[in-house]
Amino acid sequence: MADNTLILYVCTSNATKLSVSPGIRLWGHTSGISDAEITARGKAVSVSSQGEEIRVWELEGRVSGKSIEVRPNSIANDALTSAYGPWSEPSSSRWNDRRSWVGFDDEMVLVLKETSDGRESLMMYDFS
């Protein structure tokens, strides 16, 4: 969506009928969303297309989704922020990276990252 949100629809079906619930808007991302995954148990992960923002969603049994923001913190990220300030963007190719896939289980999140020159790297966030 243009406002950096996701809309969750619950679909149910049987042999004769398909139902789609009204959408629930999920707020929280600060930039566009490149991918999201959801399990049948109501857990979801979404990853932003720019920046290093991942959101972990607990959706089961809730009227509106709540998320936890996960941002990796490293010395390189801190140095860039202090050198350029939080709102300016350096010309480094690091900012041209695109997140193109996300997958997860109960203990970790995997993000496939692609750079502008086509190189790929797999990032793992371990919560165990």
Automatic annotation (TrEMBL):
Keywords from the named record:
WD repeat
WD repeats span 26-60
List the PROSITE patterns hit by this protein, alphabetically. WD_REPEATS_2 (PS50082)
User: What is the name listed in the Swiss-Prot or TrEMBL entry for this protein?
Assistant: F-box domain-containing protein
Species this protein is from: Colletotrichum gloeosporioides
